[in-house]
Structures are given as structure tokens and as C-alpha cells.
Design a protein that fits this description.
The N and C termini lie far apart (about 110 Å). Helix 9 runs antiparallel to helix 19 and helix 18 packs across helix 22. By secondary structure, the protein is mainly alpha-helical. It has three domains: about 350 residues, no CATH class; about 80 residues, no CATH class; about 80 residues, Alpha Horseshoe (Serine Threonine Protein Phosphatase 5, Tetratricopeptide repeat). The chain contains 27 helices and no strands.
Length: about 550
């Protein structure tokens, strides 16, 4: 009898308690797993990915900018068009290693693996150690995290920065001291220098401060904490504003890209994802520097005078706003589409294409967790965690809300969504842990309700919201350019042919195909056909450059056949 009584009174150890009991081992193991997966991916893309040593679009711009910084151009000579933190981080690294893309990608992969520890700590302090461990495990092998840690984009550093910011906010909520709020404000400013949209976090954070602490802290104390939070943010951001004023003679808070991005996301023909507006040729406003020149030329031409960067940005804000005012119903539907795209499994890219990039890494071909798995579980977890009503959980919701709103204001991109992905993974892990506990206790009614909600979430997040086939030709065109740059002529020709199959009207693919095949004696007939198509499309588009070039090359090929 005594023995059975002893068994009955033995307490059960919960999942979180088990994790905390072996916490150091758990964290080291998760970071090691994340690093192993990323290193395998790193060596795969180094051997196979044509973009590895020849980055283009945004990664190419950042690499070139960082190279100039490392060579001594610390201030630059104009207002920042892009937020500066990422290229300056790369610039400091290049100062140490030389302009090494190899070192930059390796550096990012190490940081990405380290983020697993930050996710665990954030989960432990908000939703429980078990949730933190499962979220960190998911992040260690999360497909998009592994992928973007290997790409030269801002998300590689802003993702861990946002995790540190959230940890600082959680600490400030449990210990509302001046120094803790100063640290949180400084981290917000640093993250804003990576991408300014995170400044919208102030909107939910300030009311949260008041409602969380007004019963136990005086109004004076609350005011001082809010002031310190704001001053710390400004102390980080305003030196960049001052630099823009001194160097560019213009008042721009951080960067001048806002107006262009607002027009891309809300102007005529906006689709909710990135696309080059119809007022520009697709290949002449593709990367950020091309955009800067193209948007400045149109704005200045329309206004009849040279405009400062802030005036150019304001021009495009106003032009998009006028379109919204003229088509309010269309814009409301567009906002709904962007909201759906934010939680959709579709990974929209403008710098790197994830589906085609999977061909260059065996790791990416594995059945790793994707956003399509995380998103519905995250929606379930957010609904379930809301009942906790604990102040420390709110920063997770605030971060998700900030990114939902900011991407709805502009447009949805896969790498724009990455800095908030860890928070969605945390909510998804919470939903899984909750379901596990309910199944273990055989609570059938809650399980049934949650299963229904999860099924609805899956249906919503996997809706086909974007027809990506219309832009796939650019993926193959850009790959062709990379293979051409690497002197892999056969691969380049193959990609240009695929681009033409998807969009026979795209003159640049015909042009580059013609250049490649005319160097191959056995495919000279294909070169003639390609140049004839360039001539035809050049006449249709009234593009004198292509017409003249096609005639010149056709004449040369004709002379070879005589």
C-alpha cells in the first residue's frame, strides 16, 4: 500500500521543466544543429550556385557598396537611398577579410545558427521553455532561414537584431528600469538602420507600456521610461539623419527609398508583391541603384527641375496616393491581398528565386519546415496564446503586427518577411505544444476546435494568390546572365531558351541568346533566328539601339556564310 501511495504522489515533470533541467545541453545542441545544416548548405552553394561569387540585384549592390566602404569611402557622397546598417556591417567585415563574399556568407551562416539560442531564450521567457526549444529546433532547420542566411541581404542581420530587441522589451517589461528601456530603444534604432519599417513598433509599444505599468508605476515614472526609450532610439538614428544633411544637403531620416517602394506597392498595376512599374523598362529599374536613377529621372522630368532625394520620394508618395484616392475600392482589395500574402506559403522574391535556387543545394531539397507549415500553426498559436494576457508576451504580438502593417503599406517579399519569421515560429511551436498537452490529456473538444481552426488556417495560407508564371521568365534570364558571366555558355543558352519559352516578347532574352549562339559555329543558324527576332521586337518597341545592333550582327553573320 505504501509503495502504491508513493507512486501516486510522485509529481509529473512537464516538458518545460525537462528542457530547463538540461538547458545548456539543449541550447548547445540546437545551435550546433543549425550550424551543421548551414555549413553543408554553404559548401553546396559555393560549389554549385552561379550567384555565389557573382551576386546581382540587391546582393550585388550591397557587396559593391561594402567594398567601397572597406576601401575608405565611409561617408559616401549622397543621401542614403537604402538603409545603411547592412552594407556598413559588411564593409567592416571586408576591412578585416578583404572583399570576400566567401567570408560574408560564412559570417551570416554563423549568426543564423546563433539565432537559435536567441529564439530559445525568447520563447522560455514568454511562452515556456518547451516552446522555446521546439521553436529553436524548427529554426535550426527552417528552409527559408537556411536559405537567406546564405544570401547577401539585410534579413541576415535584422532577424537576430529583432530577436535581441524583443528580448530587451521582455526584460524591460519584467524589470521596468531606465537602463532596460534605454537598451530597448537603442536596439530599435539599430534595427531601423537595417530597415526603417521596424520604427512602426513604437505605435503598439507605447500604449502597451502605459496599460501594463500604470497601476504600479507613477505617471512621471512612465513618462520618463517612454522618454528614455524614444531618446535612445533617436540617439542611434539621428546621426544618420545628420550625415544625410551634411553629405546630401537634404533632410532624410534614414533612407530615401520609401516613396519608390510605396509606388511599387500601391501604384497602377500593383499586385501586392514586387514588380517593376509599367512606366519603366523591366531591366532598367530592377536593382535599387537602377531604381534610384529611374525614379529620379521620371520625377524630375515631370516636375521640370532637378529634385532632392526627399522631394523625389515625396513625388512618388503623392503619385501613389493620388491613384489610391481615385481607386479606393481597388486599394482596399489590394490591402486584403497583401494581408493574405503575408501569411501565404508563397515565397515572393525579387533578389533571389527560392524554387530555382533549390537546385544548387542538396539541403534545400530536403523536406525541411517551410512557411506553409509554420503560418497556419502560428495563427493557431497566436489565438491560443492571447488568453495568457501576460505583459511579457505582448512584444511578440507587437512585432508580428508591425510587420503585417508595414508590408501592407508597401508590398510583400519573402526576405522582407524573414525578420518576423522567428516570432511566427515561436507562436507555431506554442500551438504544437498546446495540442500535444491536450492530446496527452485526451481533451477531445479543445482538440476538435483547434483542428478545425488549423484546417481553416491551412486552407487560407495555401490559397493561390499570385500568378508567378508571368515573372518566371526573369528568373531564367538572370540565371542565363550569371552563367554567361561564368563563361558557361551552354548553361547560359539553356536558361535564355527557357526565358523565351515563358515570354517570347522579352527582347533581352533574345538578344543575349543571339550573342551566345553566334559564338558557337554549330548553332549559328539559331543566332540568325535570334537576331531576326531582336530586330522584329526592336521595331515593335521603337528601340533604335536594338534595331541597329541586330542589323549589324545579321550583316556580320551573313558575311560569314558567303
Amino acid at each position: 500500500m505504501a509503495r502504491s501511495k508513493s507512486k501516486a504522489t510522485t509529481p509529473k515533470i512537464g516538458l518545460s521543466a525537462m528542457v530547463e533541467k538540461h538547458e545548456r545541453l539543449v541550447v548547445i545542441g540546437l545551435v550546433a544543429l543549425g550550424l551543421l545544416v548551414r555549413l553543408v548548405h554553404f559548401f553546396q552553394i559555393e560549389a554549385n550556385d552561379p550567384y555565389f561569387y557573382f551576386p546581382s540585384v540587391d546582393p550585388g549592390v550591397y557587396h559593391e557598396w561594402a567594398t567601397r566602404i572597406a576601401s575608405g569611402e565611409w561617408l559616401g557622397d549622397d543621401v542614403f537611398f537604402l538603409a545603411p546598417l547592412y552594407p556598413y556591417t559588411l564593409g567592416i567585415l571586408y576591412k578585416i577579410t578583404g572583399a570576400s563574399i566567401y567570408a560574408a556568407r560564412l559570417f551570416q551562416l554563423v549568426i543564423g545558427a546563433g539565432s537559435c539560442a536567441l529564439i530559445y531564450l525568447l520563447g522560455k521567457r514568454t511562452l515556456g521553455a518547451a516552446t522555446g526549444a521546439l521553436a529553436a529546433l524548427t529554426w535550426s532547420v527552417y528552409s527559408m532561414s537556411v536559405f537567406y542566411d546564405g544570401v547577401l541581404l539585410v534579413a541576415a542581420i535584422q532577424t537576430p537584431l529583432n530577436l535581441l530587441l524583443a528580448l530587451a522589451l521582455v526584460r524591460a517589461s519584467s524589470r521596468p528600469g531606465i537602463l532596460n528601456w534605454a537598451l530597448a530603444g537603442a536596439l530599435l534604432g539599430i534595427s531601423a538602420l537595417a530597415r526603417p519599417n521596424v520604427l512602426l513598433l513604437v505605435i503598439p509599444i507605447l500604449p502597451w507600456m502605459y496599460f501594463s505599468f500604470h497601476r504600479r508605476l507613477s505617471r512621471t515614472r512612465l513618462f520618463v521610461m517612454a522618454l528614455v526609450f524614444g531618446v535612445s532610439t533617436c540617439a542611434v538614428v539621428l546621426p544618420v539623419t545628420f550625415r544625410n544633411l551634411v553629405v546630401g544637403d537634404d533632410i532624410v531620416l534614414i533612407s530615401a527609398q520609401g516613396g519608390a517602394n510605396f509606388y511599387i506597392g500601391n501604384g497602377p498595376g500593383a499586385t501586392g508583391v514586387f514588380r517593376v512599374p509599367s512606366v519603366f523598362p523591366p531591366t532598367r529599374a530592377d536593382d535599387p541603384m537602377q531604381q534610384r536613377l529611374a525614379y529620379a529621372k521620371v520625377a524630375s522630368g515631370d516636375m521640370g527641375e532637378d529634385l532632392a532625394p526627399s522631394e523625389i520620394s515625396r513625388y512618388w508618395w503623392n503619385r501613389a496616393s493620388s491613384h489610391i484616392a481615385a481607386h479606393p475600392g481597388q486599394w482596399i482589395r489590394l490591402l486584403g491581398l497583401k494581408l493574405g500574402l503575408f501569411f501565404n506559403e508563397f515565397e515572393s522574391g525579387n533578389s533571389r528565386d527560392y524554387p530555382s535556387s533549390r537546385n544548387f543545394s542538396s539541403v534545400m531539397k530536403l523536406p525541411l519546415p517551410t512557411f506553409g507549415l509554420v503560418a497556419p500553426l502560428a495563427l493557431l498559436g497566436m489565438a491560443l496564446a492571447w488568453k495568457k494576457k501576460e505583459a511579457m508576451v505582448f512584444p511578440l504580438y507587437a512585432m508580428v503586427l508591425t510587420y503585417v502593417v508595414s508590408l501592407m503599406i508597401f508590398f510583400v517579399l519573402s526576405h522582407y518577411r524573414m525578420p518576423v519569421a522567428p516570432f511566427l515560429v515561436l507562436f507555431a511551436a506554442y500551438g504544437v505544444i498546446w495540442l500535444f498537452e491536450k492530446i496527452r490529456k485526451k481533451r477531445m473538444i479543445p482538440i476538435g476546435l483547434a483542428a478545425g481552426a488549423l484546417a481553416l488556417g491551412i486552407a487560407v495560407t495555401q490559397m493561390d494568390l499570385v500568378d508567378e508564371t508571368g515573372s518566371r521568365f526573369m528568373v531564367h534570364y538572370n540565371l542565363g546572365n550569371k552563367f554567361r558571366q561564368m563563361k558557361k555558355i551552354d548553361r547560359a543558352v539553356e536558361e535564355y531558351e527557357r526565358s523565351i519559352d515563358l515570354n517570347p516578347q522579352y527582347i533581352s532574352s533574345h538578344h543575349n541568346l543571339a550573342l551566345m549562339t553566334e559564338r558557337m559555329p554549330k548553332r549559328r543558324a539559331r543566332a540568325v533566328t535570334a537576331w531576326e527576332r531582336v530586330l522584329e521586337l526592336g521595331k515593335q518597341n521603337k528601340d533604335a539601339m536594338y534595331v541597329e545592333r541586330a542589323r549589324k550582327h545579321l550583316q556580320h553573320l551573313s558575311s560569314l556564310d558567303r
